[in-house]
Amino acid sequence: MEYKQLIGEALACGRRYTRYGKTASYISELAKRDPSHLGLAICGLDGKTAAAGDCDEYFTMQSIAKLIGLILAIEQNGFDVVFSKVGMEPTGDAFNSMVRLDLLTGSKPFNPMINAGAIAVASCLRGATFEERVAACLAFARRLMRDPQIDVDYKAFAAERATGYKNRAIINLMKSNGIIDGEVEPHLDVYFALCSISANCRDLARFAAVLANNGCDPEDGERLVPLPVVQRVRSLMVTCGMYDYSGEFAATVGIPSKSGVGGGILSASIGRMGIAAFGPALDTHGTSVGGLKMIEFLSDRLGLNMF
Ligand code: GLN
User: Fold this and answer.
1) Beta carbon of 195 within 6 Å of any ligand 1 atom
2) Is the separation of the CB atoms in 267 and 208 below 8 Å?
3) Does the N terminus or the C terminus of the chain have fewer Cβ atoms within 10 A?
4) Are the C-beta atoms of 11 and 293 separated by less than 8 Å?
């Protein structure tokens, strides 16, 4: 496929930067990953995928799964319910920041891409038990990525659950602000399970291609996500998807994207293609250093800047 050579060049470009990053240290399972790993996949709107490097390596989606939680929560509850609990404004703060939550009593988290917002969204995910709620997320993830092997990495889940003090503080603060219904721990578990969904670059490129293809499966055209939901999600990816780097990323790369501390970056080039990069060595924003360079390279070479 024509992208094969370009992907090779992008990988070579990304490899020059991995040494400048570090694996996430606050989740022990992530700290163990090999920082030199690098993978890249492109899924065209015909469903054909080109991939290279460590593209078959499974890793936890972490914050990329916030997209799955958000889409599913909107499908289950509608826009009004979900956005009564979370806003749509960028913060310019770190992904796990909680400062703004305490500025005003009752203030809701700024957007669904930061931890606070994603936890509030996860609290809307329906189901009688933890298992039911996670099963719904997994069923949706498997449909989006067409990979029946997609599952929760329960080792990563347990590791994050054991040390998720900051997220626990965030949900408790939101509970005291009246944003969270019911007990906090079950909602937090659903959020941790979402973050621990394990996928590879090919899977994530396919997910990105669904978003790039206005919510339809790139292979058979089946509608998987309604267009208004895709539009809402893509816009939030542009303004908030790369946390406190979102502004610069929009200005320099210009593709709706979402990063995760597992080292993945998902980029949906609207009407063009889905891209997924993987590299566990992160910069100070919690974004894959090598992944970022590869996406920058592809945006430049393929003219993917939407602005
Ligand atoms: N599970 C991670 C956390 O809550 C997700 C953060 C991320 O990927 N940026 O801290």
Assistant:
1) yes
2) yes
3) C
4) no
Residue 66 is a catalytic residue: yes
SS3 readout for 68-129: HHHHHHHHHHCHHHHCCCCCCCCCCCCCCCCHHHHCCCCCCCCCCCCHHHHHHHHCCCCCCC
Buried b (16+ CB within 10 A) or exposed e, 33-48: bebebbbbbbbbbebe
β-sheet bridge partners, residue 198: 60, 151
pLDDT per residue as tens digits for the range 94-133: 899 888 887 766 689 999 999 999 999 999 999 999 999 9
Ligand 1 pocket test target in 30, 66, 67, 95 with most atoms within 8 Å of CB: 95
Whole-model pTM: value is 0.97
Q: Tell me whether residue 145 is exposed, middle or buried, using C-beta atoms within 10 angstroms of its C-beta: 0 to 12, 13 to 18, 19 or more.
A: buried
- Rounded to whole angstroms, the maximal C-alpha distance in the chain is 55
- The radius of gyration computed from the CA coordinates of the chain, to the nearest angstrom, equals 18
Q: Are 88 and 82 in contact (CB under 8 A)?
A: no
How far apart, in whole angstroms, are the C-alpha atoms of residue 295 and residue 257? Answer: 10
**Per-residue tokens: 210:** 């669904």
- Is 261 an annotated catalytic residue? yes
159 lines ligand 1 (CB under 6 A): no
Structure tokens at 297: 């390279």
The answer to whether residue 134 is catalytic is: no
Contact predicate 14/40, CB 8 Å: yes
